């Protein structure tokens, strides 16, 4: 699970202009639908190009599903949407083997997970057994049914929404499930100006209906593979390791960040650097993406909860207290 230590790539190995063009087109398309949430859209695009998965958590009605649908529509690719409910079965997601009377053989009928972008609406309304059906596909990008393994299409992104766990009729996501998501973000309420613009533009026809694809799945996959080549110095990797260690010893955390969290943070930082036009990662890239990548992977102590310190607050404190190594 360690990052490769190969020498820096040649300066022309990553076409940063193409990366920024593709990412900019997706970003612009989404912002025609989502008003006043530029930072949220940027994080979503970063996760897409880092080949991660995104969890959007907030109260009902703030645009979680609209964000997921907008990102899916901006790419000319296979898209599926799953409305998670208490009676949803794991086979509804992964697929099921059905006996064919004509051929006298079992045939595999693919489930909703076989798409480039899978929109999981209100994921925490499904039972834990159904939630766990996503574990293999999100981590290994494959599905195993009846002893047979089926690869998933690339790129592959699960973009799930959920309401806060204290809402009625929800099941909290277990730690193993949350850890599969590269980043978690919150939409938040829009500003007054954004809400006025939304009332004007959404009053008749939804802008989502006018959104057309701006790129293809093949082009997105090419940029994902290019971003993997961005150079990361040894000092920068040491900085990520020190952030992980600091979270494990923070007095307000009873569970710090895992090694997988460090890998996800570095992958997201690579995408963030590429979107900024750099062919190498700097500490500012790590700091910019640390809260959405780490805050859902750590657990706060009872003391932190009593003093109303969120995990996002604690992650910010970890970042502020961890010194940037020399030789960045």
Please tell me about this protein's structure.
By secondary structure, the chain is of the alpha/beta class. The protein is built from 15 helices and 13 strands. Residues 1-12 have low confidence and may be disordered. The chain has a 5-stranded parallel β-sheet with strand order 3-6-9-1-10. It has 2 domains: 11-228, Rossmann fold (3-Layer(aba) Sandwich); 230-328, Helicase, Ruva Protein, domain 3.
- The SSE order reads HHEHEEHEEEHHEEEHEHHEHHEHHEHH
Main sheet summary: 5 strands, parallel
Q: What CATH architecture label of the largest domain applies?
A: 3-Layer(aba) Sandwich
At the first level of CATH, what is the class of the largest domain? Alpha Beta
Would you tell me which CATH topology of the largest domain applies?
Rossmann fold
Cα-atom radius of gyration: 20 Å
Helix content percent band: 40-55%
Beta content comes to 15-25%
Overall tally of structural domains: 2
Low-confidence stretches at least 5 residues in length (pLDDT < 50)? 1-12
Count of separate DSSP helical elements:
15
- Extended strand count: 13
- Overall pLDDT metric: 86
CATH superfamily of the largest domain: P-loop containing nucleotide triphosphate hydrolases
Q: What's the end-to-end separation, in Å?
A: 23 Å
| Structural class computed from helices and strand pairing | alpha/beta
Gross morphology is globular
**Physical arrangement of strands within the biggest beta sheet:** 3-6-9-1-10
């Amino acid at each position: 699970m360690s990052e490769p230590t190969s020498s820096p790539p040649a300066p022309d190995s990553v076409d940063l202009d193409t990366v920024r063009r593709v990412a900019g087109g997706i970003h612009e398309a989404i912002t025609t639908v989502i008003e006043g949430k530029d930072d949220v859209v940027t994080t979503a695009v970063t996760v897409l190009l880092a080949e991660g998965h995104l969890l959007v958590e907030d109260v009902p009605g703030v645009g979680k599903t609209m964000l997921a649908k907008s990102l899916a529509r901006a790419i000319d690719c296979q898209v599926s949407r799953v409305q998670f409910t208490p009676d949803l079965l794991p086979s509804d997601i992964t697929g099921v083997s059905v006996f064919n009377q004509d051929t006298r053989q079992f045939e595999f009928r693919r489930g909703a997970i076989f798409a480039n972008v899978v929109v999981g609406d209100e994921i925490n309304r499904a039972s834990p057994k159904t939630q766990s059906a996503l574990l293999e596909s999100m981590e290994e990008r494959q599905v195993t049914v009846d002893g047979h393994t089926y690869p998933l299409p690339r790129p592959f992104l699960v973009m799930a929404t959920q309401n806060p766990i204290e809402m009625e009729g929800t099941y909290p996501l277990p730690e193993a499930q949350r850890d599969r998501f590269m980043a978690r973000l919150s939409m938040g309420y829009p500003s007054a100006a954004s809400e006025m613009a939304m009332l004007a533009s959404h009053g008749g026809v939804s802008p989502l209906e006018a959104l057309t694809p701006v790129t293809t799945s093949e082009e997105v996959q090419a940029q994902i593979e290019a971003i993997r080549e961005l150079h990361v110095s040894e000092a920068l990797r040491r900085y990520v390791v020190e952030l992980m260690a600091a979270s494990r010893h923070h007095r307000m955390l009873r569970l710090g960040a895992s090694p997988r969290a460090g890998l996800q943070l570095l992958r997201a930082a690579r995408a963030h650097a590429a979107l900024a036009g750099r062919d190498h990662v700097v500490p500012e890239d790590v700091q910019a993406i640390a809260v959405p990548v780490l805050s859902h992977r750590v657990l706060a102590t009872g003391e932190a909860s009593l003093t109303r310190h969120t995990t996002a607050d604690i992650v910010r404190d970890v970042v502020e207290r961890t010194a940037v190594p020399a030789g960045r």
